[in-house]
UniProtKB/TrEMBL annotation:
<comment type="similarity">
    <text>Belongs to the short-chain dehydrogenases/reductases (SDR) family.</text>
</comment>
<feature type="domain" description="Ketoreductase">
    <location>
        <begin position="9"/>
        <end position="190"/>
    </location>
</feature>
<keyword id="KW-0560">Oxidoreductase</keyword>
<dbReference type="Pfam" id="PF00106">
    <property type="entry name" value="adh_short"/>
</dbReference>
<dbReference type="InterPro" id="IPR057326">
    <property type="entry name" value="KR_dom"/>
</dbReference>
<dbReference type="InterPro" id="IPR036291">
    <property type="entry name" value="NAD(P)-bd_dom_sf"/>
</dbReference>
<dbReference type="InterPro" id="IPR002347">
    <property type="entry name" value="SDR_fam"/>
</dbReference>
<dbReference type="GO" id="GO:0016491">
    <property type="term" value="F:oxidoreductase activity"/>
</dbReference>
<protein>
    <submittedName>
        <fullName>Short chain dehydrogenase</fullName>
    </submittedName>
</protein>
Length: 237
C-alpha cells in the first residue's frame, strides 16, 4: 500500500499519547491516514492529537475495558467510514522477583498487554473485514527471551506473540495481514523511564513508525509476520 493509496484510509492506534504509539500515529497521519489515538488520560491524548494535526482524534480509552474499546472503534468507523490499520500498542510493565510481584501488579500487566490486545482486535475485526486491513501488535524481544524479574511482562509478551500468530491464521482469509513487531531497547517513557541523550544508541520511536510505513508498502501477496528489531550498536558491557 503506497502513500498515494492511503488517501481515504484510516488507522486506530492504542497507547498513543507518547512513545511508539505517538510516533506511529504521527507517521500514519503524515502519510495520509485519518487517525484515532487512544490513551487512559484525556489531557495527554488530546494534546497528542493536537500536536499531530491532520484531523487526528484523541479518545480516552482503557484497553482493559472491552466495552469502552468497542465504543471507541465504532466511533472511529462512524467518523471515518471504515478502518484499515490497527496498531495494538498499549502496554505497561511491572518488574519484580516472583516472590515480590503482587497479584495486582500481575493483573495490571496481563490485563493491559494481553487481554487488552485481544479486546482491541476483537472490537476492530468487523470493520477490518469489510475491506481488508492490517493489524500490528507491538510485542517485544521479551516475548522470546525471559529475564529475572520479568514474570508478568514476559508472560504477557509470550502470550501476545502466540495471539498474533493465531490471528494470522484466523484472519488471512479476510485479506487481513498481521505483523508482530518485537523491539529491543527503545528510547521511550516506558516503566517510568525518561529518555535522555544517553539513549541515543537505542531504537527510537520514529524508527518503529518508519518500519510500520515500510510494512504497509509490501505487496499484498507477502507478509512479514514477525519482525525482531534491535539497536544496531548497543554499548559494550
Amino acid at each position: 500500500m503506497t502513500q498515494s493509496d492511503s488517501q481515504g484510509r484510516s488507522a486506530f492506534v492504542t497507547g498513543a499519547s507518547k512513545g511508539i504509539g505517538f510516533a506511529v500515529a504521527r507517521a500514519l497521519a503524515g502519510a495520509g491516514y485519518a487517525v484515532t489515538l487512544t490513551s487512559r488520560r484525556q489531557d495527554e491524548v488530546e494534546a497528542a492529537a493536537g500536536q499531530i494535526g491532520h484531523g487526528a482524534r484523541g479518545v480516552v480509552c482503557d484497553v482493559r475495558d472491552p466495552q469502552a474499546l468497542q465504543q471507541a472503534v465504532d466511533a472511529h468507523v462512524e467518523a471515518f467510514g471504515g478502518l484499515d490499520v490497527l496498531f495494538v500498542n498499549a502496554g505497561v510493565g511491572n518488574f519484580a522477583n516472583i516472590e515480590d510481584l503482587t497479584v495486582e501488579q500481575w493483573r495490571e500487566v496481563i490485563d493491559t498487554n494481553l487481554s487488552g490486545a485481544f479486546y482491541t482486535v476483537k472490537a476492530a475485526i468487523p470493520a477490518l473485514k469489510r475491506r481488508g486491513g492490517y493489524i500490528f501488535t507491538l510485542s517485544s524481544l521479551a516475548g522470546r527471551n525471559p529475564f529475572a524479574g520479568g514474570a508478568a511482562y514476559n508472560a504477557s509478551k509470550f502470550g501476545l506473540n502466540g495471539l498474533s500468530e493465531v490471528l494470522t491464521l484466523d484472519l488471512r482469509g479476510h485479506d487481513i495481514k498481521v505483523t508482530q513487531i518485537m523491539p529491543g531497547s527503545v528510547a521511550t517513557h516506558f516503566a517510568g523511564h525518561t529518555p535522555t541523550e544517553a539513549d541515543a544508541w537505542k531504537i527510537q520511536p520514529e524508527d518503529i513508525a518508519q518500519l510500520t510505513l515500510d510494512l504497509l508498502e509490501m505487496p499484498a501477496r507477502t507478509l512479514p509476520s514477525r519482525i525482531e528489531v534491535r539497536p544496531s550498536k548497543p554499548p559494550k558491557r
